[in-house]
Amino acid sequence: MIAVALGMAAAPAASAATPPKTISKGDSGHGVWCVQRAVDNYYKTYYGKTTNVIAEDAQFGTSTADWATSPSPKTGSC
Questions:
Q1: Do 47 and 23 contact (CB within 8 A), yes or no?
Q2: SS3 of 68, please?
Q3: Contact indicator for 2, 34 with CB cutoff of 8 Å
Q4: Do the Cβ atoms of 25 and 60 come closer than 8 Å?
Q5: Are 75 and 67 in contact (CB under 8 A)?
Q6: Domain assignment of residue 9, yes or no
Q7: Alpha carbon distances (Å) from 65 to 5, 20, 40, 55
Q8: What is the Cα–Cα distance from 66 to 10, expressed in whole angstroms?
């Protein structure tokens, strides 16, 4: 028990978690697709949408930007 406590005392302090990278218009890739997928799943689950409200193309282009900045609640399509 004492050895564990001493080992913990000698361990370096944990650093704060790095904040997630932000995504913005012009970005592409898995992170953008992941957000698009989450948005679509939310609207399918909570609003009964049968089609995607935002294209899952992994491109943060005009459609995604327009959807993200339109007034709430977001009930229309891109």
A1: no
A2: helix
A3: no
A4: yes
A5: no
A6: no
A7: 51, 19, 15, 11
A8: 52
Backbone angles phi, psi at 59, to 5 degrees: -120, 120
> What is the count of structural domains for the chain?
1
Q: Give the span between the Cα atoms of 47 and 69, in whole angstroms.
A: 19
In a domain, 74, yes or no: no
Domain limits at 52? 20-69
For residues 55 and 78, is the Cβ–Cβ distance under 8 A? yes
User: Tens digit of pLDDT for each residue in 4-13?
Assistant: 444 445 555 5
pTM of the model: 0.61
Could you give the 3-state DSSP secondary structure of residue 6? helix
Residue range 17-50, pLDDT digits in tens: 666 678 888 889 998 999 899 989 998 999 998 8
What does the alpha-carbon distance between residue 6 and residue 73 come to, in Å, rounded to a whole number? Answer: 54
